[in-house]
Write a structure and sequence with these properties.
3-oxoacyl-(Acyl-carrier-protein) synthase II; Beta-ketoacyl_synthase; Peroxisomal Thiolase, Chain A, domain 1; single chain; alpha+beta; PKS_Beta-ketoAc_synthase_dom; 3-oxoacyl-[acyl-carrier-protein] synthase activity; 3-stranded antiparallel beta sheet; Thiolase-like
């Protein structure tokens, strides 16, 4: 999954999904031309909970300061060996009495919705896309068969349903569980809901909390570096993972204008593909990566200014 964010001052030409007849599925009143439509998707709200604490401000300052070091995995993971990970500080972490992933996501969504200035009426028709690998699997791990509710399999869609109920989001909803790319897929899917006229506003979010299954699986595959994250270093031994959540409020530029909101950024493009080569490793030729990149960059004028890379291990 690859995405392109542009400044809010960018052009208004957007690549959009084609309908079955091969025409741009633009909302009523939007112009159409050769599979492209003029629906501009902008970001009007941001939210985050990370190892630096609660809020996008804490995340930004923490990244600039580069002062955070990974800590031993929390006891909740229940592993014999405790790898070093980036955990949400106890003072900023939601209570563990509820599903931790859902609680982290709720905190991020609350911040994003507040910054976007969305009212209850706005949220009633808004869409919701959630990316999460395992959802609130910690409920089952903690229940251990002793609590009727906690022993229910934590299907990932339950997190989405809970968020929709909590914030009164009544539009189309979607849960995406594509491992590390789930949050990016949520943003791309949310953009397509707007581009195709299914929603004017979408809350797109992604998050996961540490759990025995999550950390144990990464450890079993040998993907965790016990010391630090050092990409491109000859001595690298894997990655250092973290827990947290992030949320974006996406909406059409027309909707943002009606509400008098300032766009923080424009989503200039997104692309996805799947090579089905290996559970962890991409197909060696890179053809599918190039395909998704080309799709994401199709609507961008000029070259991208930065690239953010990811790899599991």
């Amino acid at each position: 999954m690859l995405q392109v964010l542009a400044s809010a001052a960018g052009g208004d030409s957007r690549e959009c999904i084609l309908n079955g007849a091969g025409h741009c599925a633009a909302p009523s009143g939007k112009s159409q031309q050769r599979g492209r439509c003029t629906v501009t998707v902008v970001v009007t709200g941001l939210g985050a909970v990370s190892c630096f604490g609660s809020g996008t401000g804490a995340l930004w300052e923490g990244l600039l300061g580069a002062s955070r070091r990974p800590d031993p995995a929390p006891d909740v993971c229940g592993l014999p060996a405790r790898p070093h990970l980036y955990a949400v500080p106890d003072g900023d972490a939601p209570a563990r009495g509820t599903g931790r992933t859902g609680a982290l996501l709720a905190a991020a969504v609350a911040e994003a919705v507040a910054e976007a200035g969305l009212s209850a009426g706005d949220l009633l028709d808004a869409g919701l896309t959630v990316g999460t690998s395992l959802g609130d699997i910690d409920l089952s791990e903690r229940g251990a068969g002793t609590d009727a509710d906690a022993s229910v399999p934590p299907a990932t869609h339950r997190v989405t349903a809970s968020l929709a109920a909590r914030f009164g989001i009544g539009g189309p909803g979607q849960t995406l569980s594509t491992a590390c790319s789930a949050g990016a897929y949520a943003v791309g899917w949310g953009a397509e809901l707007i581009e195709t006229g299914q929603a004017d506003v979408v809350v797109a979010c992604g998050g996961d909390a540490f759990s025995r299954v999550a950390v144990g699986t990464l450890q079993r595959f040998g993907l965790l570096d016990g010391e630090c994250c050092r990409p491109f270093d000859t001595g690298r031994a894997g990655m250092v993972t973290g827990e947290g959540a992030a949320a974006l409020v996406l909406e059409s530029a027309e909707s943002a204008g009606r509400r008098g909101r300032t766009a923080l950024a424009e989503l200039a493009g997104h692309g996805w593909s799947c090579d089905a080569h290996h559970p962890m490793a991409p197909e060696p030729s890179g053809d599918q990566l190039r395909r998704s990149a080309a799709s994401a960059l199709a609507g961008l004028d000029g070259a991208p200014g930065a690239a953010v890379l990811h790899r599991a291990g």
